[in-house]
Amino acid sequence: MRYFRLYILLFLMIPFSIFAEDGSQLWLRFPAKNGISADKIISKGNNPTLNIAKKELMNHWQGQEIELRTDKSLKNLKGGYTIKSVQNKLVISAEKEIGLLYGVYHILRLQQTKSALANLNITEKPSYDVRILNHWDNLDGTIERGYAGHSLWKWEDLPNTISPRYEEYARANASIGINATVLNNVNASPNMLRKDYLEKVKALADIFRPYGIKVYLSVNFSSPKVLGGLENSDPLNKEVQKWWKDKASEIYKLIPDFGGFLVKANSEGQPGPQDYGRTHADGANMMADVLKPYGGIVMWRAFVYSPSKEDRAKQAYLEFVPLDGKFRDNVIIQIKNGPVDFQPREAFNPLFGALKKTSEMVEFQITQEYLGFSNHLVYLAPLFKETLDSDTYADGKGSTIAKITDGTLRPAKLTAISAVANIGEDKNWTGHHFAQANWYAFGRLAWNHNLSSEQIADEWIKMTFTDNEKFINPVKEMMLTSRETAVDYMMPLGLHHIFAGGHHYGPEPWGDYKGGRPDWSPVYYHQANAKGIGFDRTKTGSNAVSQYFPPLNDIYGNIKTTPENLILWFHHVPWDYQMKNGKTFWEELSYKYDTGVKNVREYQKVWEKVQPYLDEERFQHIQSRLKIQAKDAVWWKDACLLYFQTYSKMPIPYDIERPVHELEDLKKIKLNMGHHN
Ligand code: BDP
């Protein structure tokens, strides 16, 4: 009887398991179990990575015979590969097995997107050596700024119990070329380096290794004192140096290919070398020295600022430029794309290019801390591209951030690119199904920063949903415009950091944390008053423009030549200032908010029209989130326009929908999502 029930139950579950679309498969939807037989794969050797490559082919490759060939002469491809059609077979060649695995994912992608498979002659070389995700996961299972559930890493169960998701995670990353991961929060617990935790880390590293993924850790600068019981953590203290040296040796015994450390020091209350009167270089070099014998690196973050009279946007540059040339060659400075903090739009960080003798890498944020969490559909490739394509003029015209960081302009010893992950234990990994596209896009751009946002969206849609044009075209258009739409309904025209304090979800332009930190107050950033609005960063203001190379310092320093999408980033703009299209600044601001709202309303229509082309489960999930996004967009528009109107005293243009909220009601909204800043 019991068995009978079980069978009924299993029977009932079959249709669900076939049709249930929880998004857990990500973009990896290759035809199941229909691949070529083992005798159609020619390869030599027996290596775990090669075995994965073969397994993927046997499970999913429906094309011709394949040869997988390692070839030492391909070292210059830096982990890349070639794919060539040779008579009746496809030959994938790479220096090492990991390149072969990447090549296999490449042809599976071509198959999945129904791209041409004849006469292939492909050579792929990654833009960056280290393509790394930063997880802000805490040891208690929570994730700082995570919106897809708890941490994937089950620290309590490790190393004995291994979740199947560890390997799925590694496979997903390998499929897009990500080859490194920082497991824990930059606000790091010293316990991460405890022996028992290192054994857990080793278990993860062992699972990730065949997929070509190296493990790195965020470390707390005070670890020697807190964990080792030393008197202090002064980087010039011999005992402290010895403590790190012993720690490194302990780590590498467990994990011989350990990647290195990520460090947030002297920032937002974290300890650092300055606590002992030392510099960032002293701190970074001490760690670099102990990692050097093992080939490890230090990613030292430039995200530093403290409450001071100095414009927050200037502080990282002021601290780091004087240290240029003082860092060891296995130190790389990890720089957020903008000089403030992962805002919907920022001017690029002027540190890029300014460090001439030091390796630099970009840090992006995939998790949508400042972009509506996992409720808003915001495709981030255009934001990533905007940064990478920004011309710093550091070595003359054409000195884009991509070229500064990938080593083409200045042969850099280390090249890397990083992003804060949006991955959690939600079934669909990222909370919003479309947020998977941002993980995907980061990986693809880290591999090849020349890909366009459109190409990546096109691939991702075909792999994740369908190749039906009726779905692809409108959905792609929605994705491609979604970042600008979010900027429009949140912070158009260079506005920044007017989020509600703490959780950063909704608007709080009135936020003025008197007695708290002014540089965490929205009013610090928008500076609205009876005259106008915006942060004066020109010579008459904080002079942050002077941190940019010519001609950008002049371009940004002049209101007439500043791109209008950054006008409030650099200027305090009179309400009646005439914009290029003839409208007053106030009118333009109003229309921007309105456009943002209208676009989201349009996305709702787009989505309902494509319903016939996808499964019900994902359709509804996304539909419900678009409703939240539409409501939030109206909330943003009303809050910002009603509040700024108290200064502009000008009418909201009459062809714009009237606010549906009262400002005083909006001020009372307190979301219970607490956080420090
Ligand atoms: C801020 C986040 C904070 C992070 C910090 C960082 O609000 O949670 O710790 O960035 O990057 O944007 O260190």
Automatic annotation (TrEMBL):
Source superkingdom = Bacteria
Gene Ontology molecular function terms on file: alpha-glucuronidase activity; xylan alpha-1,2-glucuronosidase activity
Where would I find the Glycosyl hydrolase family 67 C-terminal domain in this sequence?
430-655
Instruction: Output the Gene Ontology cellular-component terms.
Output: extracellular region
Cite the Pfam families for this sequence: Glyco_hydro_67C (PF07477), Glyco_hydro_67M (PF07488)
Catalytic activity entry: Hydrolysis of (1->2)-alpha-D-(4-O-methyl)glucuronosyl links in the main chain of hardwood xylans
- Domain Glycosyl hydrolase family 67 catalytic span(s) in chain numbering: 112-429
Question: What GO terms describe the biological role, i.e. biological process, of this protein?
Answer: glucuronoxylan catabolic process
EC number in record: 3.2.1.131
The similarity comment for this entry is: Belongs to the glycosyl hydrolase 67 family.
Record-linked PANTHER family: ALPHA-GLUCURONIDASE A (PTHR39207)
Q: Could you identify this protein by its name?
A: xylan alpha-1,2-glucuronosidase
